[in-house]
Amino acid sequence: MSDSSRTMRLVGVDIGTLTCRLLIADVPSGGRLIEVRSDRRILQLGEGVDQTKQLSRAAMDRVLQCLKEWRELIDAAQIDAVAVVATSAVRDAMNRDEFLDRVKREAGFEIELISGEEEARRTMLGIRSGLPHGMTDVLALDIGGGSTEFILGRPGQPPIVRSIDIGVVRLCERLLYHDPPTDDEVRQAREWIARETRAAVAGMDNYQAATFVGTAGTITSLAAMAQKLSTYEPARIHNYQLQLATIQELEQTLLSRKRADRAGLPGLEKGREEVIAAGAIIIRTIMETLRMSTVLVSDLGLREGVLLDLAMRTR
Prior knowledge:
Mean pLDDT: 91
CATH superfamily of the largest domain: Exopolyphosphatase. Domain 2
Structural class: alpha/beta
CATH topology of the largest domain: Nucleotidyltransferase, domain 5
Number of domains: 2
Distance between the termini: 12 Å
Low-confidence stretches: none
Strand order of the largest sheet: 8-7-6-9-11-10
Strand content: 15-25%
């Protein structure tokens, strides 16, 4: 059977500023991804990068330990191809070459350092693979640890991409110093996010007519919290309609508590209590600025797009 028609088993790894994600999936010719194994870990690779422009030794060690474990999983499976990408934190770090070299030497992975625009293109590939049938124009929002991407996708046209340097880790480190944040810190954060959002969509014609779709940990966590899920259930998160009014209520709940008191809230993933309030501020402010009353939640994003892109290149 030729490569163009057989099912391939592929691996995608997304090394993000906050979270590292693994996906092993079978990719039939022309079909949707069939998940074989997935994992995600909040490892805070980007901790301190906004101030120091350096990946810390401790953060690199955490990610390397995880990648070594994933390497063993991958080596035990019959894999056709692997793609590993790194995003904002590694892009911004002056010592990124040291990290890339260590990953290659110690875990055996060749990392592709992708731009914000390429990150957005592959994220849209992942999102589109799981949208309800018949959905055409999409304005996608990907809130990461170090940056946020706005992606306007229309069939038959290259996506219009705007990447802004505001993410949950960066916002915490730059403005939200107190626990919980003060009213003045929240006000400054909203002003910054609103200003960057208006600039990002300035050249996007008629984006209001597109379906507003959100991906990544902030939005999926808020969807889980809105439903008070005791464990993460992808089937209940994916294509969930998250209302602005619900986000506003959740944001107030989060901002009224210290980080330690957020742990254990129904639906909130362990390790995300430090950044979820920042994420809620970002999504709320963006939706209010764009006058969006609801966001369609996608459980698919960059790591699925990395796999789909790899499948196309491999075939």
